[in-house]
Fold this protein.
Amino acid sequence: MVDDMKIYDFKLAPNPRRVRIFLAEKGAEVTYVQVDLFAGHNRRTEFLEKNPLGGLPVLEFDDGTYLAESVAICRYFEGTFPEPPLMGINPKDAAFVEMWNRRMELELFGPIGRALQHTHPMFKDRIKQFQEFGGIQREQALKQLEWLDSLLAQREFIAGDRYTIADITAQVAIDFGGEMVGISIPAHARHLKRWHDAVAARPSAKA
Amino acid sequence: MVDDMKIYDFKLAPNPRRVRIFLAEKGAEVTYVQVDLFAGHNRRTEFLEKNPLGGLPVLEFDDGTYLAESVAICRYFEGTFPEPPLMGINPKDAAFVEMWNRRMELELFGPIGRALQHTHPMFKDRIKQFQEFGGIQREQALKQLEWLDSLLAQREFIAGDRYTIADITAQVAIDFGGEMVGISIPAHARHLKRWHDAVAARPSAKA
């Protein structure tokens, strides 16, 4: 247990799940405090004092400072709990892992998130939705699943032959896209399916 | 000079500038090879073999591997040219720098980029534009400039009291927004202006 440290979390949101999986892979146990995004509790003053942008997760240190942004939180734990390495094993490898993690964010998680925001009734009162734009984002996400399938025909994991944070980002994005906006792995994408079965079978997938 | 390493670059694009400034701050000299984005040379097969996503910059290693994504390239050089540190000095500091760099990307660079793509004639034939969406993104970016001004009333640089990669991201985003879509620092934002004058006066700003 990591003493005096807690993470503000919400079980149903994708970004907090990235950090939960990451920490489960590290074997690091922290205290999680639920903040109900659906009820808007992340927009209350007491939470905005922790993260003025209102996003989850947020790591609270015992000195009263707050660290937001999923990957920044992961980087902190990578530095303090180095084993197993999930963000690269030397400068060059770390750079390639970062490239793949960012590609999963920008090319996959990004369009899935925008498809959700612009087409799902949940966001109807929160933002001005452009349904057609959301539909284009959805097509883009589906196209990237094909790309991932072709990549995974040549390698075991997203960034190469080791499991890394890039796998976590892709796993969370794909599970979230499937549940929320029906952006699912195509039946013919057998390499992507093989990879997804493998990451879903890891104990961390339940985190 | 970093032997046998080159970076595919385009002088007029913002992401390559992030890496050029980062390397200028490190005093690392590399060979730059121009790829004309305006002429679509990044969509040619020979370039897509280097980066299938078509983006710049790309770092070519002497073993024939290619590293894309600006921050991934910066991270490689942070590991191999540690001085001066631009991505944090210990695990906790590195995590906070990453938080601030990501906030500059997600909250500032993101809306500026989408405002450009959805309103600028340059993108008319490249994507389906949603002008109203672009306008909302523009307003969002302007709002974030106000937020940055209030932040910089309390600290010298974006991530605290040292110049970091988060300053580079913000500088490039703001210069690009000003030139391309008229998203400029408001006249009353004197703290943001003070910071911008300071980063613009560094020799790296010309990179």
Remarks:
- The longest helix of chain B spans residues 91-119.
- The first strand of chain B starts at residue 6 and ends at 9.
- Chain B has a mean pLDDT of 96.
- Chain B touches chain A at residues 52-53, 61, 65, 67-69, 71-73, 75-76, 78-80, 90-92, 94-96, 98-99, 102-103, 107, 128, 130, 132-133, 136, 147 (CB under 8 Å).
